[in-house]
Amino acid sequence: MPICIEGGATQYNIGKIYERSFSMDILKITTDETLRETVSHGNSDYPFAYYPENIWQFDFHRVDWHWHHELEFLYVAEGAALCLAGTDTVYLPEGCGIFINSGVLHRFEAQCSTFAPNIVFSPTLLAPEKSFIYKKYISPVIHSSVPYQIFNPHTTWQNRVLQILSQIFTVQETEQNNELRTVQLLFQLWDELNNNLNLTYSFKDLRRLNHRQASLQTMMQYIHDRYREAITLEMIAASASISKSGALHIFQSGIHISPVAYLIQYRLAQAAEQLYTTQKPISAIAEETGFASSGYFCRKFRQHYHMSPNEYRQSKTWHRSYL
Asked: Can you list the domains of the chain with their CATH numbers?
């Protein structure tokens, strides 16, 4: 069941727009075969990035499944977002925010224009990994079994977090040499989180969570490598040395769809990329992406994207020409 919370408003200045990935008119997350986001958030000297993004501008109005070792804080400034994280579906109305822990698969969706500025940074920005500060204040959070934390402006400590986030965003927009001020604010942010987060610090739960995610990523990689072939649920499960029912459970709890449904969605995504970047016939694209026939491919494409392959190709061509 979705978790619904009442929103509020936090104000700050809005300036230039930076996006994680931009390819002509398509904005999207780029990932590797395990769904780890491949873009560098900042650099090794300063592993911090600020993204004032509108989820609606991403391809199919979603920031698709991905994970990263970095920590993420997102605030819904305008509109409303649906966040899938851990095993939950979280509704985030305007004025609310969320923390996504390190290594957690997540996805954001929007039904209308949704401006959701966010920051992504390495925990080592706060302290070196082997330091006392890291071991005492950072490691307990990132190695807990807590996948996310919602911030509601009507809860006192969570509103303080939202206010600090607002200051961090403003600093990125208004100050050039902002690194020192940003890190100061990140320490305040982490202090609030560390003092108030209800940690379920269970090594048993954490091992189980890590095992499930490792199995999920193994099966995803198998699909990514062999999506052109005729593969079955049994073959997907065997790639992670688990049963078919185990594979179904891991996919449903991890990304809320079955392995076969994910296979079809992945094939459709690869086909959509070819429709946009090539002039290959639809029948050839269908065959190359693992569909048994072009008719079946067209039905699935329309069912998933609410338009035909030709309409998708034409819309992208028109948008590119218009730009």
From this structure: 2-196 (2.60.120.10), 204-322 (1.10.10.60)
